[in-house]
Amino acid sequence: LRPPTVIGQFHTLFFGSVRMFFLGVLGFAVYGNEALHFSCDPDKREVNLFCYNQFRPITPQVFWALQLVIVLVPGAFFHLYAACKSIKQEDILQKSFYAGFYIFSVFLRIILEAVAFWLQIQLFGFKVNAIYMCDVGALEKKFNITRCMVPEHFEKTIFLIAMYTFTVITVVLCIAEIFEISCRRLGILKTQ
């Protein structure tokens, strides 16, 4: 069962293909071995690991993979329900209950994307700096603050901005899909 709207079908293509490809291929290229190249002064394994864990409580690839899976859940529930009830694509727009259920799943996607957007800001910010100042006081070192070099910080900043952009595009597509469904239900647009 494909989405009942043109925008929903484009969203599925965009979300399923472009965003996942971008994360899977380019995300690995940019972030794949970040921990190995993260180095602090003094360059000792325990200091590097301690500071990297401070710098990245969760790796961006894991965060974005979780975001993709969580955002897919409302649509998956709707499509599972539709498959179990043998609902036809055209029935989704014609019957109020199905249209309402589908719109609710799209609203949930918007909410989940907004929460992920906010969490991404909290975890990663908008820019990756070249130097990270790490508090190593817990390691009982002479100095409480040490400088760490962040590899490929400029590439990571560009990737962060791209992931923010994908989230915004996804939310805009979801809002447009709700608008399209509403227009079809009101008879402003003809049903496919």
TrEMBL record:
What is the membrane topology noted in the UniProt record heading this document?
Multi-pass membrane protein
Subcellular location, record wording: Cell membrane
Q: Which domain of life is it from?
A: Eukaryota
Q: What GO terms describe the biological role, i.e. biological process, of this protein?
A: cell-cell signaling
Q: Which residues cross the membrane?
A: 12-31, 62-84, 96-119, 158-179
Any single GO CC term annotated in Swiss-Prot or TrEMBL for this entry = connexin complex
Q: Which SMART domains match?
A: Connexin_CCC (SM01089)
Which Gene3D superfamilies does the record match to this protein?
Gap junction channel protein cysteine-rich domain
Q: Name one GO molecular function term.
A: gap junction channel activity
Give the UniProt keywords, A-Z.
Answer: Cell membrane, Membrane, Transmembrane, Transmembrane helix
* Pfam families named among the record's database cross-references: Connexin
The family database entries (PANTHER family) matched by this protein are listed as:
CONNEXIN, GAP JUNCTION EPSILON-1 PROTEIN-RELATED
Q: What is the protein name given in its UniProt record?
A: CXE1 protein
